Structures are given as structure tokens and as C-alpha cells.
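Journal club side-thread
Mid-discussion, someone asked how the predicted structure for our own chain would compare to the paper's figures. Pasting it here so we can look after the session.
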Amino acid sequence: MQLAEGRYGGKKVLIVPALLLLMAAGFWGLHLVHLHADFPNRSPWVDWAKYTDEGWYGDAAIRHYLRGTWRLPGDFNPAAALPVWPLLEGLVFRFAGVGIVAARALTVFVFAAVLVCSFLLLRHEAREGEPKHLRWIFTAAAVLLMATSPFLYVFTRMAILEPLLVLLMLLSLLAAQAIRSAPTERQRVVLAIVVGVLVSLMIGTKTTAVFLLPSIAYMLADAAMWQRRRILRMAAVTGGTVVVLWGGYVLWLVSHGYWNDFLYLFAANNTTIAGLPFWETVGNTLKNGVWMGSLLYPLAIALVVLAGFHKKTWCDPLFVSLLLWVSGYLFFLAYHANMQPRYYVVVAVPLTLLMARAALHVTAWHPSASLAFASLLVLLVGREAHLTLSYVRHPEYTYQTAADRIERIVESDPTHSHTVLSISGSDLSLMTGLPSICDDFGTMDLEDRIAAYKPGWFVSWNSIEDDKMEALSKFYLLTRVAEFPAMDDPDRNVMIVYRLDAKDGVTPQRKHKQEKALPVSPG
């Protein structure tokens, strides 16, 4: 494949990128197939989010349409701290109804927007001396790599927070880029406000967005031509917008009595590197990057390091900004010390863009390298596409099947409450419409939640933990009525259904009249 500019002329320059983008669109379309299917079983990614997170973080929207309220006092209510995703999901549910397909389709379209914004971000950043045809090709190649990635395929088909965070981050960088070329001061101020709004939405999507702020700040500083007064003005406008929006939101939370729910999210996620060897944690963080692609990850690192040896590379604000994005989130992963594959979605997208940017810089100094990059591209896309197509061709429906059977059991018994107690209860609500409460997280003790909501059924994975049995046995006799195989994790591959029969003469009563207060912790 000859990439020398002399062999391309006029519109012919666009033929190869157009074909790459057409292939990317086709692979994106495959994300919409089999939306009921399990997270692929026997995959390299062991992530418990596939049992819980799709329901948990959309719970406010699910409850709003199923129960008429977004919040259950004392239960797990993450929307108090993370309101953006459930608000977006709620808009979809208004027209499509509550369901796992609607929620996952929303994420797939968010991923489509990620691909479009990635293309615009790379295309916009034209630097002096860059070969135009190579910029087109590497930009389209980055989009194709993301569209064919099996890692992104499995996680951008889940109704989780990370894809939306990536999209908002890309929009923030695009808005910051646009400031540089804005013709008037008024337009620059408006765009700075837009960046502030987007940053606020990012934090409201996932609070770990704060680790991405250095990347945005760098792009804003470059847009301000690195002039101190302009930088301070930009910081005041953007930062002031964030302070006003989040300050107003916090006041609303406090005035409506939702502050405890807000704090609880941080306490529940309080996992840091305290007590763990620092360098071991850092090493694990970097090593687990292979989840993003066993070939793509080392190649991306090699290209970035190679490009970094040239001084001109560091004059490219997009290269530096993407590097800060990747570094900032890897720092969070090391700090949090709870490496789950889904967290790396926030790294995979900028790393792919960074790789494309680095390849462009390297070929600018060594045009002969273009043929080698073309060969690597074919190898990468072929390998990634093969794995993705294997997941598309072999869907399984064990989780949805188990949920449907549980729904039939619960609804066929008019003598018991239809409320289900389960750590996967929110997922069951999303898939079936059954009301549920969580058996693991909540601002009230489990015993108090049971007394308050009086569930009629308990669904556990594989076994019952001692604390759950202790709380339930105070009020109920547990009758095992069914079990269903689901998913592939050895610790969670059987859903067991228990009917909760009230003990004679025992009426569930709450010990506490109020929710317990929890200290705020960084998480």
C-alpha cells in the first residue's frame, strides 16, 4: 500500500480514509446487534459491573418510571452524586420504555458520538509540515481501530458511565480547540463557558472526571496563546461556571435532604493504595493496560515514546493534552487500587488517538515509515475485527433468561410482595420491571432496609453471605424455590431464588428512624 503523497492527487487523497471510515461505520452497526445478550462469557475481562452497574447507575430513571420516585430512602441512590446518566436514560425511557435494550442502545449511540468527535478532534488539529493525506489516513485509522476493538465492543454495549464520560471529555477538548480560532472575544468567552458546562456534566457523570482536568486546562492554556492574562481570564470563566453549577447543585441536594446519599457514594468506593506496596500497584495499573488490546497497547506506548524523542512533538497541544488525559486517569487507577477492566475505557480512546497522533509525527520525519505503519494497521484491524466478530456471531442470553424466569416466579405468587432483595436487583428491575432493593449498599443497615421495604423474594449469587442471612433470618424463613445458571464467573454463575416467608408473630420493624450518616472519603 503506497502512501507517498505524490501518488495521491485531488479527491483521490480521500479514497483510503473514506473506505476506512465506511468499515468503521459497519463495525459500529454491529454494536446494535443482540443487545439482550450477555456480556461475552469466557472473555479476558472479569468485571463485576456486568452483574450490577447497568441497573445501579440508571436506578433513578428506572424507579422514576416504575415506582414514581427516583429515590428510595436508605437504599443505594448513586444519582444524588451522579445525576447526568440517569437523566439521559430517563429521556430515552420516556419514549422507549424501561428496558435493557433501550439503555444499551443509548450507550451504543453515545459510542457513535465518541467516534465522530474523535474524528473531528484529530482532523481539526492540523500542524505545519504535516502531510495532509497521512493526517486523513491516520485519523480514519484511529476511528476504525476503536470501532473494531473487542474491548470497546463489550463495554460500549453496556449501560455504564464510562462511554458518556469519554464523550463529554472529547466535547470539552473540541470546545477548547475552537477557542483558539474564535474571531471575537465574546465568542471565546461563550466557548469557555461551554467548556465549564461540559466539565460540570463530566463530574456529574463520574466524579473521577477531576483527574482529566489537567488535560482540559492544557488545551485551554494553548487556546489562550500561553498569555498569562488570557489564561487567567479563561480559568476564571471556565472555573467560575463549574463553581456556580456545582455550587447550586450542592445547595439543592442539601436543601432537599439528599446530602447523605451524595456522601455515601464516596464512602462506598473508598478503596485506595493505603497498606499496599506503591510500586506494585503502579505496576499492576500499567500491566493491566493489556486489557485494551494485547497488541495495540504496547504498540501505542512504543509509538508515543518514539514520537516523544522529537522536540516538535511537544509543540503539538493535542498530543500533550491526550497524554495528560491518559496519564491522569492511570494515576486515578493506581490511586484507587481497584483495577476493573471497564475503567480502562476512559484510557483506551485517548490512547488510540494518541497513537494516531504519534504515528503522524513519526512519519513526518521518516516518510519511509508510512509503509510499516500501513502493515501494522492491517494486522491490528484484522486481529481486533476477528475477535469482535467472534463475539457478534456467538451471543448468549443466560442472564436475561434467568431474569425472565425469576420474573415469572415472582409474579405468579400473589401472596408475597413482588419486591426483590438482591445485589443485582437493579439489573433485574431494568430487565424485567420488578421492584427491587439492594442487599449490599445503602445508607441504612440491611436489617432496617428489609424492615422498611419488606421484600418478598431474595435472589443471591451461588451462596448467601453470613451478614445477609443474619439480617434476613430475624424476620423470615428462607425457602429455596429455584436456581438458574447465568454468566461465567465461578463466584457468580448461578442465580438462586428464595421466597421470604414471614416468621409467625414477627413483624419487621426498623431499629432506627433515620438513615445513618456516613463520613465522606476520597474515592
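Post-session note: Residues 1-10, 517-523 have pLDDT under 50 and may be disordered.
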